[in-house]
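Look over this record as teaching material.
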Amino acid sequence: MTKDDLKWLAGFMDGEGTFTVVQSNTPGPLPYFTPLVTVSNTDKNILCWIRRTLSIHNRFRPRKLVKNCKRLYELVYACDNAREFITQILPYLKMKQKVAREVLNFPKRHCIKANVLGWGGTKPDLKTLKIQLAAVKRIRAYNKRGTKH
Protein backbone atom coordinates (compact mmCIF):
# COMPACT_ATOMS: atom_id res chain seq x y z
CA MET A 1 0.00 0.00 0.00
CA THR A 2 1.41 3.38 -0.97
CA LYS A 3 1.66 6.41 1.31
CA ASP A 4 -1.08 8.11 -0.74
CA ASP A 5 -3.32 5.05 -0.29
CA LEU A 6 -2.77 5.17 3.49
CA LYS A 7 -3.58 8.89 3.57
CA TRP A 8 -6.77 8.31 1.59
CA LEU A 9 -7.75 5.40 3.83
CA ALA A 10 -7.12 7.47 6.97
CA GLY A 11 -9.39 10.20 5.61
CA PHE A 12 -12.05 7.63 4.76
CA MET A 13 -11.81 6.15 8.27
CA ASP A 14 -11.97 9.64 9.83
CA GLY A 15 -15.33 10.06 8.12
CA GLU A 16 -16.80 6.56 7.97
CA GLY A 17 -14.89 4.34 10.40
CA THR A 18 -15.21 3.32 14.02
CA PHE A 19 -12.42 2.46 16.43
CA THR A 20 -13.75 0.77 19.54
CA VAL A 21 -13.51 -2.03 22.09
CA VAL A 22 -16.39 -4.46 22.66
CA GLN A 23 -17.05 -6.75 25.58
CA SER A 24 -17.19 -10.40 24.62
CA ASN A 25 -19.18 -13.05 26.41
CA THR A 26 -16.74 -15.53 27.82
CA PRO A 27 -17.00 -18.12 30.56
CA GLY A 28 -15.52 -17.06 33.85
CA PRO A 29 -16.03 -14.29 36.36
CA LEU A 30 -14.48 -11.38 34.46
CA PRO A 31 -15.28 -9.69 31.12
CA TYR A 32 -13.05 -10.02 28.08
CA PHE A 33 -12.60 -7.10 25.69
CA THR A 34 -11.86 -7.15 21.96
CA PRO A 35 -10.45 -4.18 20.01
CA LEU A 36 -12.40 -3.55 16.78
CA VAL A 37 -12.08 -1.38 13.72
CA THR A 38 -15.21 -1.25 11.58
CA VAL A 39 -16.28 0.64 8.51
CA SER A 40 -19.68 0.48 6.83
CA ASN A 41 -20.64 1.83 3.44
CA THR A 42 -23.18 1.33 0.67
CA ASP A 43 -20.37 1.15 -1.90
CA LYS A 44 -19.22 -2.47 -1.81
CA ASN A 45 -16.34 -1.73 -4.22
CA ILE A 46 -14.63 0.70 -1.81
CA LEU A 47 -14.67 -1.84 1.00
CA CYS A 48 -13.44 -4.60 -1.33
CA TRP A 49 -10.56 -2.33 -2.41
CA ILE A 50 -9.59 -1.72 1.24
CA ARG A 51 -9.79 -5.44 1.91
CA ARG A 52 -7.57 -6.38 -1.06
CA THR A 53 -5.09 -3.57 -0.57
CA LEU A 54 -4.41 -4.07 3.15
CA SER A 55 -4.18 -7.88 3.09
CA ILE A 56 -5.08 -8.08 6.80
CA HIS A 57 -7.53 -10.78 7.90
CA ASN A 58 -11.02 -9.33 8.31
CA ARG A 59 -14.73 -10.07 8.16
CA PHE A 60 -16.77 -8.68 5.29
CA ARG A 61 -20.53 -8.94 5.31
CA PRO A 62 -23.69 -7.30 4.07
CA ARG A 63 -25.70 -5.71 6.87
CA LYS A 64 -29.38 -6.42 7.38
CA LEU A 65 -31.42 -4.79 4.64
CA VAL A 66 -33.54 -1.89 5.90
CA LYS A 67 -36.71 -0.95 4.03
CA ASN A 68 -36.28 2.07 1.70
CA CYS A 69 -32.48 2.07 2.18
CA LYS A 70 -29.55 0.93 0.08
CA ARG A 71 -27.76 -2.27 1.06
CA LEU A 72 -25.04 -1.51 3.62
CA TYR A 73 -21.78 -3.48 3.77
CA GLU A 74 -19.43 -3.78 6.73
CA LEU A 75 -15.72 -4.50 7.03
CA VAL A 76 -14.49 -5.55 10.50
CA TYR A 77 -10.96 -5.96 11.84
CA ALA A 78 -10.62 -7.51 15.33
CA CYS A 79 -7.93 -8.08 17.96
CA ASP A 80 -4.36 -8.01 16.59
CA ASN A 81 -5.72 -7.40 13.07
CA ALA A 82 -7.37 -4.21 14.36
CA ARG A 83 -4.06 -3.16 15.91
CA GLU A 84 -2.22 -3.81 12.63
CA PHE A 85 -4.81 -1.78 10.69
CA ILE A 86 -4.53 1.15 13.12
CA THR A 87 -0.72 1.05 13.08
CA GLN A 88 -0.69 1.52 9.31
CA ILE A 89 -3.03 4.54 9.18
CA LEU A 90 -2.43 6.20 12.57
CA PRO A 91 0.08 8.83 11.36
CA TYR A 92 -2.45 10.09 8.81
CA LEU A 93 -5.63 10.19 10.91
CA LYS A 94 -6.86 13.68 11.76
CA MET A 95 -10.24 13.45 13.52
CA LYS A 96 -10.05 10.02 15.12
CA GLN A 97 -6.37 9.76 16.02
CA LYS A 98 -6.97 9.90 19.80
CA VAL A 99 -9.53 7.12 19.86
CA ALA A 100 -7.50 5.01 17.42
CA ARG A 101 -4.42 5.41 19.64
CA GLU A 102 -6.53 4.42 22.69
CA VAL A 103 -7.70 1.24 20.94
CA LEU A 104 -4.18 0.49 19.69
CA ASN A 105 -2.77 0.77 23.22
CA PHE A 106 -5.63 -1.12 24.86
CA PRO A 107 -3.99 -3.48 27.37
CA LYS A 108 -4.24 -7.21 26.87
CA ARG A 109 -5.27 -9.17 29.94
CA HIS A 110 -2.59 -11.22 31.58
CA CYS A 111 -3.07 -14.10 33.98
CA ILE A 112 -1.14 -14.81 37.14
CA LYS A 113 -0.33 -18.48 37.78
CA ALA A 114 -2.13 -19.93 40.77
CA ASN A 115 -2.36 -23.55 41.80
CA VAL A 116 -5.48 -23.41 43.94
CA LEU A 117 -7.98 -21.65 41.71
CA GLY A 118 -10.63 -23.23 39.56
CA TRP A 119 -10.21 -21.09 36.40
CA GLY A 120 -7.87 -23.36 34.48
CA GLY A 121 -5.12 -22.81 37.05
CA THR A 122 -4.90 -19.06 36.49
CA LYS A 123 -6.07 -16.00 38.36
CA PRO A 124 -7.15 -13.05 36.19
CA ASP A 125 -4.99 -9.96 36.59
CA LEU A 126 -7.37 -7.50 38.27
CA LYS A 127 -4.97 -4.57 37.87
CA THR A 128 -5.08 -4.95 34.08
CA LEU A 129 -8.87 -5.28 34.18
CA LYS A 130 -9.13 -1.98 36.05
CA ILE A 131 -6.94 -0.29 33.41
CA GLN A 132 -9.07 -1.84 30.66
CA LEU A 133 -12.32 -0.58 32.19
CA ALA A 134 -10.93 2.96 32.40
CA ALA A 135 -9.84 2.75 28.75
CA VAL A 136 -13.29 1.48 27.70
CA LYS A 137 -14.85 4.51 29.40
CA ARG A 138 -12.54 6.90 27.49
CA ILE A 139 -13.17 5.11 24.16
CA ARG A 140 -16.93 5.33 24.66
CA ALA A 141 -16.62 9.05 25.40
CA TYR A 142 -14.63 9.56 22.17
CA ASN A 143 -17.24 7.66 20.16
CA LYS A 144 -20.26 9.45 21.63
CA ARG A 145 -22.19 11.24 18.91
CA GLY A 146 -21.95 15.00 18.80
CA THR A 147 -18.71 15.33 20.81
CA LYS A 148 -15.54 17.06 19.61
CA HIS A 149 -12.08 15.90 20.61
User: Anything to note?
Assistant: The chain has a mean pLDDT of 85. The CA atoms of residues 14 and 96 lie 6 Å apart.
